[in-house]
Amino acid sequence: MPSSIIPQSGSPALPQFDIHERFPLDTVCEAAKILTGASDPVAAMPSVLNVLSSFMGLRMGALALLDDSGSGAIGNGAGGNGVNPFAIAATTQGAASAPATSRAMPVGATRAVFRTGVALVSCDVASELGPDALPPQAPHDRFAFIAVPIREQVHSPYVIGVLGAWRDLTEDLYPNIDEDQRVMTMVAAILEQSVKFRRLVARDRERLMEEARLALRQANEKAAAEAPLPAEPIKGIIGDSPAIKSVIAQIRKVATTRTPVLLRGESGTGKELFARAVHALSDRKDKPFVKVNCAALSQTLLESELFGHEKGSFTGAMAQKKGRFELADKGTLFLDEIGEIGPEFQVKLLRILQEGEFERVGGTRTLRVDVRLVTATNRDLEAAVARGAFRADLYFRICVVPILLPPLRDRLEDVPQLAQAFLDRFNQQNGMNKRMTPQAVSALARCQFPGNVRELENCISRVAALSSGTEIGAQELACHQGTCLSAELWRMQTGEQSPIGGLAAAVRTPLPVIDSGTGQRPPAAACPAGFGEPPVAD
Fold this sequence. Notes:
Elements: E1 4-5, H1 24-36, H2 45-56, E2 59-66, E3 74-75, E4 86-91, E5 94-99, H3 107-116, E6 120-122, H4 125-128, E7 143-151, E8 158-168, H5 177-226, H6 242-255, E9 261-264, H7 271-280, E10 289-293, H8 299-307, E11 308-309, E12 321-322, H9 324-327, E13 332-336, H10 343-355, E14 357-359, E15 366-368, E16 372-377, H11 381-387, H12 392-398, E17 401-404, H13 415-430, E18 435-436, H14 438-445, H15 452-466, E19 471-472, H16 485-494
Parallel strand pairs: 1-6, 9-16, 9-17, 10-13, 13-16, 18-19
Antiparallel strand pairs: 2-4, 2-8, 3-8, 4-5, 6-7, 7-8, 11-12, 14-15
Helix pairs in contact: 1-2, 1-5, 6-7, 13-15
Region (Disordered): 516-538
Domain Sigma-54 factor interaction: 237-465
Keywords: Activator, ATP-binding, DNA-binding, Nucleotide-binding, Transcription, Transcription regulation
């Protein structure tokens, strides 16, 4: 199809009058104002097409754009298949999304402009483009059609749209088709620049948004990397109560230092377990963890056990023996029941804590060690210092960071977890598969457990061993059978009857009471009816 079609010499004569006055410059100015001020130039095209109608007398203008479902912009010489899918994006009637077959623009002529990138002008649409190229409901067949390309960029071969309009030749005395083409070409150029500018703005906005998303993602990743990882559970320590969480938090803080730690609490609160936790969370975790129960050895044996001895240093010393301090070198030494050592040994212990050196029993060579010391006691060391039974200088050496371990009755919310852990251990050791009913767990959670965690373990092992089936009910617990030692201990401590009952009267035998200061049982008169202050078991 030719790119420019001019009237033939045999064309009918035009009317000898002109009913339209043209304003090409005003048309371009108005189109520029509309397009440059619009956030969406394509959506503003109906107004531009109406300006072409009002100022230039062009009829039924339309804008065709490549269909999004097509293969993209097709330029001069590109594509090669002659098929340019497009859709009508705007008409003088308003914004539209009509198919190419809607007759808003001649399909063949529009495809030719898409394919070639060259403006098309037909001064006799009916004869040159065919009757189907006439505008819808045309009253006659004397129309001219002008179509100009809209490019992706200035001088770009890629055509993204076509701007077209008809001129009614019966209304104009001197139709200047070339002027119509120039005006439409200028309007198309303005539209090109507006679309390009909006694309650049959208591209920059998208780039800024992508940079903001990237910065936010990097900030989140950095925050996640710098945030402390969720603390892993400490092996053997079970419970989520506030009391036990507070202790664990202290353990985690102090474990990374070399500061001596004194674990305080009643018997059965798990002092050795927490001492191992201090070691496991420290930088000495790959070195030895050595423990000594000071209450289980006499003062003579305790000195030999801690410092070692040379061969022949005393009767029975058949060979040299390394002490616990030597064995714990570069690691952790746990001295349990530190309050039980006598005054003479306290002096020797103080020296190694101050100087880091000692001699084996019967030896003369001074040895040096690097040991992290963790101690534990259930005694009132402050009272012992006040009485002169415990050296103040040694007290301040070992009690740098005191950590009080809560009794089980102060963290009863941990009882269900602990009970299940003890039952799991019993099942594994005995090849059984027993379980507790919710009622049994609830009953356990109401106990006071004067004997602490060790007592709970004893209770679980006893009921698991005596239960007849795989399911342990509340009625099988000792507290529901009047044989609960916890209830009796609670009565002895408080003078009140436990809400869960107690031992039968026939088996209520008072337990010995140990004075926390002297370590001796007080006279009977001090404990009427055999009941006194709470026992302090070792």
